[in-house]
């Protein structure tokens, strides 16, 4: 059994491709349902964000398992086999472990050290765990990765003045307009990304912010949190265009929420409108960008601003890497010891059974001994058994860490009559 990660991310994959393989929340149960029938994957976690779509799996065969996961992408998203090959990244074994730790800590993010990814990693594992798609290995990996990410945030400055995609979007808009205080903004969507954008806009002095959402009740709830924000009926979103300078959109819709033909009906060509689409799949029809006076920016355009804000976090990232290396070694030692754990438990059970048998026999022969003497005898014998099996247990653990666990567990099984000596072998 080995851990692998297969997927695509923002590093070498354009948005136009990323949006084609984004798992919507409504897709997840169906996706896991198909992966349940995968012959090579025993445990699965799917993670899909605006910058990545990836699957972590415990597979019985690395080559066949990786190919099966790639083929799943093509089938599930209805893509021609081979069209994603230049974009796929694959991490195996220790590199896969390190990737998950880096991911949770924000070291794999477009915005170095961003906070949002930690919650996304935790939620992705939580969903998989609740439906029974994970087991001992991925449960341990994701829990340790999340715990380590929290430690990094406590012990380093990597998340100070934390930036997210939403806050980067506002910084990007500020570079375009310079002064935002007199601009009117329409925010489409009411998720976390939208809330962060609204807070950043208000911090920049924006006084007129309107929000709209397909479910109006959610928009009203948001306006209660931010009394300065006005609520617009979703069906009236196009009617706001003549009054608006900036549009920020971040929904989970599988289709465009701003289409050119409708947008063009309401857009006054002498206006200047800046649109920032931070959704995957995209919310805004790219054809809108061809309209005079309209500037449409998508996720990949935000990379420059992200890089400019990265330097201050690089030193903290160095410390974070050291912490991750330390925790990865601990996890890998545990993982490589999986074959010997049953053997160790078997040794303990064997020692306990011998002790019980000999104590019963000795007690019968020492009927006249006092209870205090019998108690002392039991303490000494228990101590003796522990000392006898201590060295073999340590050697089994060392063998596991040296990736020789299967061999040593098999030998221990034969010597002591332990039947099930490996939980990694299937």
TrEMBL record:
Domain Glutamyl-tRNA reductase N-terminal: 6-156
Chain positions recorded as NADP(+) binding sites: 189-194
Pfam families cross-referenced by the UniProt entry: GlutR_dimer, GlutR_N, Shikimate_DH
Domain Tetrapyrrole biosynthesis glutamyl-tRNA reductase dimerisation: 320-418
Pathway terms, separated by semicolons: Porphyrin-containing compound metabolism; protoporphyrin-IX biosynthesis; 5-aminolevulinate from L-glutamyl-tRNA(Glu): step 1/2
Enzyme class: oxidoreductase
Site (Important for activity) residue list: 99
Keywords in alphabetical order: Coiled coil, NADP, Oxidoreductase, Porphyrin biosynthesis
Misc: During catalysis, the active site Cys acts as a nucleophile attacking the alpha-carbonyl group of tRNA-bound glutamate with the formation of a thioester intermediate between enzyme and glutamate, and the concomitant release of tRNA(Glu). The thioester intermediate is finally reduced by direct hydride transfer from NADPH, to form the product GSA.
Family: Belongs to the glutamyl-tRNA reductase family.
Function of the protein: Catalyzes the NADPH-dependent reduction of glutamyl-tRNA(Glu) to glutamate 1-semialdehyde (GSA).
Protein name: Glutamyl-tRNA reductase
Lineage: Bacteria, Bacillati, Bacillota, Clostridia, Peptostreptococcales
